[in-house]
Amino acid sequence: MMFDDFQFSSILVSTIRNAPVLMFAAMAGLFAERSGVVDLALEGKMLAAAFVSAAVAFVTKNPWLGIMAGVGISVAIALLQGFVSITQKGNQLVAGIALNIALSGLTFVIAQYFFQQGGRTPDLGEARLFDIVLPGSAAVAGIPFLGWFYTKLIGGHSALVYLAFALIPVVHWVLYHTRFGLRLRAVGENPHAADAAGINVERTRFMAMLCAGVLCSFSGAYLSIVQSGFFLRDMSAGNGYLALTALVFGNWRPLHTALGCLMFGFFAALQVQIEGVVFPGIGKVPGSLIQMIPYVVTVIVLAGLMAKSVAPKAIGQPFVKSR
Amino acid sequence: MNQADLPRWATAFALPLLNLFSALLVAAGVIYLLGESPVESLGILINAAVLNPEGLGYTLFYAATFIFTGLSVSVAMQAGLFNIGSEGQMYVGGLGLTLVLLWLDSSLPGWLLIPLAMLGAAVFGAAWAYLPGYLQARRGSHVVVTTIMFNFIAASLMNYVIVSFLIPAGQQNTASRVFADASWLPKLNGILPVLGETPLNISFVLALVALVIYGIVVWRTTWGYQLRATGLNQHAAHYAGISISKTIIVTMMISGALAGLAAVNSVMGSTHYLNLNFPAGAGFIGIAIALMGRQHPVGILLSSILFGALIQGGFDLSLEKANIPPETFIFIQGLIILFCGAMENLYAPALSALLKRKEK
Questions:
Q1: Which of B20, B294, B338, B339 to mutate to test the interface with A (most CBs of A within 10 A)?
Q2: What span, in angstroms and rounded, lies between the C-alpha atoms of B228 and B250?
Q3: Is the Cβ of B219 closer than 8 Å to some Cβ of chain A?
Q4: Cα gap A6→A279, rounded to integer Å
Q5: Pairing of strands A278-279, A283-284
Q6: What ipTM was assigned to the predicted interfaces of this complex?
Q7: 3-class DSSP state for residue B202?
Q8: Max CA-CA distance within chain A?
């Protein structure tokens, strides 16, 4: 490469490491939104799960217990969101924003109460989730390209990274090849027809919220017990909204959404790598401008200039059973 | 389950108050779990935010910003548009007034400079809301998603502009230079010395004027009728000869201009320079205020003062009680939005049943 500090290989590795946060959250949003519930509360669920995972992992010195506790809190919030949006037929957008704001404050307050470290948890140290070294890594490490490819690109990540990528085909299969997936999509497209066909709309939507809760918690756990090794106030930093964007970008389809997540992960990696690098003829490109690219791209997609994004038809509308 | 069978006083006052009370009850529970007395905390909060004149000055200072963001969200809601972008529009509005001031503050007198700067804020805010409005009206891109995107784009853009162009040479602080005295908004403590050294300034009076204008325009003009008709039923409004896309675009621009004007109070009335992340969530609080105030001028005023009091009183409370940091009030804000906005009909069935029983 012509620039010493600009390495394409490390951008690719960071892309793989950046993507899971978005992928878990986007897949969570996919379940909720395909059932007709707008999930603006991804951010809040991520934060709550990130805090609880980190706190429990720190106290028990066990990352797996942390992840399980994170699942619990995230599911509880998803069900509360379901109660407001499905049972109470409240405004789903408002409920989502309210939960995000409330949890941004509450996670800080509780973290401060328990740990007294300015609203963060102590460093997890050993309780951080370990990276998996693939068998035979030592043998191929010295070989050019193959060594990098096997030990850095596809190997050497935590279990959650592999889980995130494994989810893509699984979510696709659940959504398009199972009875639950068929019902889910029916309820999100035309709840009245689904109701007439004997599908319990409310129960299906609650099931979708349950899936969303479980998946979203992994995204929070990934932030705190894989990426940073502690919980920090507002550490989700807009990733919940970015995941929703990936969902819009991917037209509410699992494979395309995952591609959107990878694209955003790539731009985030690019931004870190490109900061301070002097390009011939252009000079330094500010990171804040690169940060903007995914959002601008999404607006262009939304405007229908690249592809038409079509949301599930019943999205955001509470279901009122007709008589 | 709907509000139609409830009398007006119930939907306008009883339900919001019940919801507010529920939110505060949950908050009191959390304060209790943190090991502090909710009653004592409430006492400190009310004293610091309302009873103490200087505290009241700060409460009304915060309220002035919230009235503008609340109006911004409300006017869009009247047309059935959910503008989540007030935060970004306020941020960019701050840039508009800053550019005017950096350019002219050494050469113009205050009486000319201040209105020009306000115009700058309104124009930049409106411009930032134009594209989401256009995309909603002409391309069907949902305004909720586009305004979220525009909030993020505004944050990156402002970061870039402030860091690259506005920081004076040799300074480390991510902020513009301090504006000349001519642009500082006159404070109200000149008229009311009892307020003491608070930043409460004439923009609170302007906010009250804006509330009145909003009330008149929305309920007493043809345009206001078209606005509400569009919000109630787009198809019916279309068949009545109202141009939906024009109404949407104009409404979004007005909404953006109001959000831009929210920057005037905090930037020209208090800090006197533009700094990174100055809106600090005021745009999102505007959503809460619009919902709680039911998009009505009196409701917006009262909820703005409530939120101002929560911030001012909460800050004082956090100084006295180590276990209740100011972030507790971010949590309480979220609870209020949840109860008053999303679960607004929580008590409607019970209240309706209660009233029916009385009639018999």
A1: B338
A2: 13
A3: no
A4: 10
A5: antiparallel
A6: 0.89
A7: coil
A8: 71
